[in-house]
Amino acid sequence: MDKQRPPGHAGYPAPPAGFPVQHQPMTNQPGGPAGVPWMTAPPPPLDCPPGLEYLTQIDQILIHQQVELLEVLIGFETNNKYEIKNSFGQRIYVAVEDTDCCTRNCCGSDRPSTIKIIDNMGREVITLERPLRCSSCCCPCCLQELEIQAPPGVPVGYIVQTWHPCLPKFTVQNEKGEDVLKISGPCVVCSCCGDVDFEIKSLDEETVVGKISKHWSGVMKEVFTDVDNFGIQFPIDLDVKMKAVMLGACFLIL
Questions:
Q1: Which of 60-69, 125-134, 173-182, 221-230 has the lowest mean pLDDT?
Q2: Which stretches within 100-254 are classed as H helix?
Q3: DSSP states of 7-72
């Protein structure tokens, strides 16, 4: 059996506090959620960016935001943390926001941010870069956008908000900035006792190829916290880079 690279080796950052490193497949490691195994990494296909091989064999991703006690007690906005799992509940990655205190608490949900997505060996395999932009239909020249990098520093795609007077709409672009897919949401983006679905469509918007959903978390969580749970569905044969872009889109639009 090959010896696995330790966390922090060769420039790879160790996972942030609260997310222990585990070696595949393992469960019930000290410091992590009991009974949550890591997904076993499949063999990486040709030309697959390192760390994205996990996405090659899945057509659904579940994202669970972690409850932060400080936010619950006093409403102080902290860096968000997420667990990213497959449909079997196995952990694929963890994601951590890297934003300063002033930006988090002054700019709200439209704040500029960097989200680092890390695998079980402590490697930062995906980086999401979100600049400061407006989300209002009154400012069509400065709408939301996101750059997805895999590995960090190498763009694989972009999510760009498209102006519409009523509906939240986004364009999915590849690493060359070419339009690939469209994302369209409902007029009212509010999970009032139900899920909110954004449809992933072909460029002509005639064919639905997947969806991104915000799942209803229950009255207590919805009212007293900003903790969210998301789901992403896409074709299993979708290009692995586009799967990473879809993952990034979830953090931007919901």
A1: 221-230
A2: 101-107, 219-224, 240-253
A3: TTGGGPPPPPTT----PSS--S-TTS-TT-PBPPPPPPPTTPPTTGGGGGG-SEEEEEEPP-HHHH
- The torsion angles phi and psi of 10, rounded to 5 degrees, stand at 55, 40
Mean pLDDT computed over 78-88: 89
We report the CATH number of the domain holding residue 201 as 2.40.160
Residue that is written with structure tokens 């879809």 in the block: 246
Can you list the pairs that 187-196 forms with residues at least 24 positions away whose Cβ atoms lie under 8 Å?
Answer: 189/254, 191/215, 191/216, 191/217, 191/222, 196/254
pLDDT at 22: 39
Cβ proximity of 139 and 164 under 8 Å = no
Cβ neighbours, 10 Å, residue 154: 11
What distance in Å separates the CA atoms of residue 110 and residue 132, rounded to the nearest whole number?
7
pLDDT at site 187: 79
Question: Could you tell me if residue 38 is inside a domain?
Answer: no
CA 59 to chain CA mean position, Å: 15
| Total of domains in the chain | 1
Range of the domain at 129: 53-100+108-253
Position 45 in a domain: no
Let me know if residue 168 belongs to a domain: yes
Residue 20 covered by a domain: no
- Alpha-carbon distance of 179 to 130, in angstroms, equals 19
